[in-house]
Amino acid sequence: MAHGFAALTDVLLWYLVDGYYNESDELGLAWDDPTVGAAWGLTAPVLSERDKGNPRREDIEDGLRPRVTMRT
Predict the structure, then answer these.
(1) Which of 14, 53, 68, 69 is 20 to 30 A away from residue 34, measured at CA?
(2) Prediction pTM value
(3) CA-based Rg of the chain, rounded to a whole angstrom?
C-alpha cells in the first residue's frame, strides 16, 4: 500500500501507530511516478531530502513494490 498527501499550507501531521518507529521498515515512492499517475495538482512541490530520493515504482524490489489497481 502506498499513501501520500499534499498540504497547501503549513501542517502538523500526527500518525496513530501500534509500535516503535523502525527506519528499516520504511519505504518511499517517487511523488511524480508516471506509472502511479497521482493527480496532485502541483508542479513544483517542496519535498524533504528523503522524499527527493524516493525511487520510481519500477525500481522497487518486486516483493515490496506497490501494486497498481484500477478503480471503477
Answers:
(1) 14
(2) 0.70
(3) 14
